[in-house]
Protein: 4-hydroxy-tetrahydrodipicolinate reductase
Organism: Lysinibacillus telephonicus
Amino acid sequence: MTIRVAIAGARGKMGSEAVKTVCNRDGMELVAALDYKHVGESLAELEMFPPNLDVPIFTDLTQLITETNPDVLIDLTNPQSVYEHTKVAMLHNVRTVVGTTGFTDEQLEELTVLAKENKIGCIIAPNFAIGAILMMKFAKEAAKYMPNIEIIELHHDRKLDAPSGTAKKTAQMIAEVREERKQGHEFEEETMVGARGADFEGMRIHSVRLPGLVAHQEVLFGGDGQMLTIRHDSYNRESFMGGVMFCVETVMTLEELVYGLENIL
Ligand SMILES: NC(=O)C1=CN([C@@H]2O[C@H](COP(=O)(O)OP(=O)(O)OC[C@H]3O[C@@H](n4cnc5c(N)ncnc54)[C@H](OP(=O)(O)O)[C@@H]3O)[C@@H](O)[C@H]2O)C=CC1
Ligand SMILES: O=C(O)C1=N[C@H](C(=O)O)C[C@H](O)C1
């Protein structure tokens, strides 16, 4: 069976890589792209894609679904659009693989309920790179023994959300095994706002944004006279594509929402 795939955000850094990957993948067909503005009738008209890539572009998701009948929508857009896309797709019985970050906890909760009610598969993966999943899993394990933790995530300077979805997910996974605790000492004071980063149950999260970076994260564990560092680096967007393909294939077998690749690997 060929999986019919649509991509929202196809012109973007991740979306364009996903277009390439889906087109080269046996057992998948790219049937449509979703954009929020009219950039042409077909991907073939865009300079960044080969002139024979005759894949229609839609600005309306419902119309895209009605006319091209995709099995899976991959969303690689932005925090403002992703919730609505995922919801509309689910309500039209289209499975979703979501890489876009920046969901609120309430949105995640609502989509979880909606997926269950409609018995429709959805995977929301804050990070598709296998190395990043392992970094999060190892960090969760280390936190059982070393609960004083600071997370430093480093990304390119076009990123919209901070902290990154990966940093948030890392903190959530660690929180499953670490009791909330204040780190440092009670007299600590910020003399410049933000100096100590964001506070997640006492762990601190720091977001670095610089040109030249792609996606990187360090989790630092401090102990008496020692420090453990767990680090992952994505040097390009190909690093995410194995995970995207795995999710497209896996979501076809699901009837619920899964948040995080670590739950299905
Ligand atoms: N889960 C993972 O492993 C990864 C997740 N990400 C996440 O994926 C998302 C995309 O990242 P990235 O590719 O770097 O970002 P880009 O800004 O490069 O790409 C986003 C694309 O989506 C388009 N877009 C915006 N709104 C809509 C909409 N409503 N419908 C259709 N297209 C839309 C943008 O158009 P325009 O530019 O014209 O506004 C742009 O082309 C981010 O949330 C990022 O955090 C990134 C890397 C890995
Ligand atoms: O915006 C990005 O680039 C990335 N976003 C995801 C996140 O917020 O964690 C995944 C990866 O870090 C790249």
